[in-house]
Amino acid sequence: MTDDRAVQTVTGRVAAADLGRTLIHEHVLIGFPGWQMDALAPHFDRAEAMTRAIDQLQELRDLGVGTFVDPCPMDLGRDVEFLAELSQKSGLRIVCTTGAYFEAEGITHTFRHLPVEDIAAIYIKEISEGVGDTGIRAGAVKIATGAHRVSDYERKLVQAGARAARETGVPLISHTQEASCGHDQIDLVTGEGVPAERLLVGHSDGIDDHDYHRSLAERGSFVGFDRFGISLIVPDEIRVKNVLKLAKAGFTKRIMLSHDSIVCWQGRPVPFANRHEDVLAMLPDWRPTSILTKIVPQLRARGLSEDDIATILVDNPRRFFAGA
Ligand SMILES: [Zn+2]
Fold first, then answer.
1. How many whole angstroms from 281 Cα to the centroid of ligand 1?
2. Distance between CA 263 and CA 288 in Å, rounded?
């Protein structure tokens, strides 16, 4: 269905070769299921959020970023019209996804009783026709699994996602919890006939374990070092060390860098922080600019060449979307 070399952004198709420097896993808006029930959460103001997001994305554009991939699951406050307006106003390309979150933190009720074929058909509809009646099409599939064990629900959704990817040619971006179950995800995706290189195993940087990273890369999948700045899980020094190790082991072409940052929260961000400012005070580098301003200089100083850095930031996302 989808031309192998075209990428579906929220404002239309572009050639994969034109994506430029790409942040492969960031978020504009996140609202955990039920955020509207929290009457004591900070008020969400759409116009204010738009202004903040435009500023943030323009800052990224000034740093040479061309494309912002927002793999927000359908059940975490995804708003593709917000993304399309933001893309037009900021001048940054944005790619959105179809797919739902893992069982413990998503809206499981809706998909629990649907068979895998129906869920795959829903995903395919969002990729080929658009989300709702917006005409805004998803450019990738989001899949997600919980910690250390894939539940029956998650298995069904990963299989549905893989079938949608197989039918449409878009790639898959995953969430893993506690950097576990990456190999289960690869098994499930390849079991549906999708090559491992069409999958980015997300949040693999959540564990200081080079052998795990390498084992994913050896199977051909992309390895997500995509939570830079979340020092509560792993300090960035450890992430940098593991990126360098994987590159030196010959797997530069399998590395993806991002922050999983969130520009605007709907509701309170996390149980221990009521406001976005509180989160940033705790995690000062959890901003979508950190890789370009802080991490890339470190990688360069510790031996990665300009070619390696371009491979990671430009070529890997291009190959991931182009399927080549
Ligand atoms: Zn995320």
1. 20
2. 8
